[in-house]
Design a protein that fits this description.
The chain has helices spanning 3-18, 27-49, 56-75, 82-95, 101-110, 116-145, 155-187. It has 203 residues and is mainly alpha-helical. The protein has one domain. Helix 1 packs antiparallel against helix 2 (27-49), helix 1 runs parallel beside helix 3 (56-75) and helix 2 packs antiparallel against helix 3 (56-75). The protein is globular and about 40 Å long.
């Protein structure tokens, strides 16, 4: 799944909020669009995790998560800050050690082992990456819906919620796994470094 695909998904999810001619979204409509966007980027994070190059997959995952936060920020009319978004993502996912990051890193490095290492590593990392992306998205949906911004975001205040959503995200990732493999095969025909492109900085 390429960065262009993510951008298209983000644009579709936020179109109603950005089109002057359209009626303002209700809170229910915005929440539904946000949920769809998070699910889409969960799938994208899983596909990136199947890139067969160790550590490049983790860098791609961070880029996917930043683009998801950018999309959610647009949906909720919140000024996007790439630096704060990166810090928030790193803090939450890093705080999930050893539940999320250690297995993900081990799975990425496991791809150094020919064939079997790539198969096992990719599968394990896909679930962890999808769950972490899903949890991060759910946290920011809650935060933005309550009127929060990147400047007011406190990782410590939502750490328990993140852990709960990470566990829920594992089930979501398991359901999306077949789709992520199809997306990874499609991405294999493209430049696998494309997802590492960062979203635009705050205006």
């Amino acid at each position: 799944m390429t960065a262009e695909n993510h951008t298209a998904t983000e644009g579709n999810a936020a179109a109603a909020a950005d089109t002057p001619e359209s009626a303002p979204m209700t809170s229910e409509q915005r929440h539904a669009a946000a949920e769809r966007l998070v699910r889409s980027y969960t799938l994208g994070g899983m596909a990136v995790a199947l890139v067969p190059v160790p550590l490049v997959d983790l860098a791609g995952l961070m880029a996917v998560q930043l683009k998801m936060l950018h999309g959610l920020a647009r949906l909720y009319s919140v000024a996007f800050r790439a630096d704060l978004g990166r810090s928030a993502a790193a803090s939450l996912v890093g705080g999930a050690l050893p539940t999320a990051v250690a297995p993900a890193l081990a799975a990425s490095l496991g791809k150094l082992v020919p064939v079997s290492g790539q198969l096992l590593g990719g599968g394990s990392l896909a679930v962890a990456s999808g769950a972490a992306t899903y949890a991060l998205g759910k946290v920011f949906i809650q935060h933005f819906a309550a009127g929060g911004t990147f400047l007011t975001f406190d990782p410590e205040a939502v750490r328990d919620y993140f852990q709960q959503q990470f566990e829920a995200g594992k089930q979501v990732a398991a359901e999306l796994k077949p789709k992520s493999r199809r997306g990874a095969r499609k991405a294999g025909t493209d430049d696998t470094t494309t997802p590492a492109t960062e979203p635009p900085a705050a205006e």
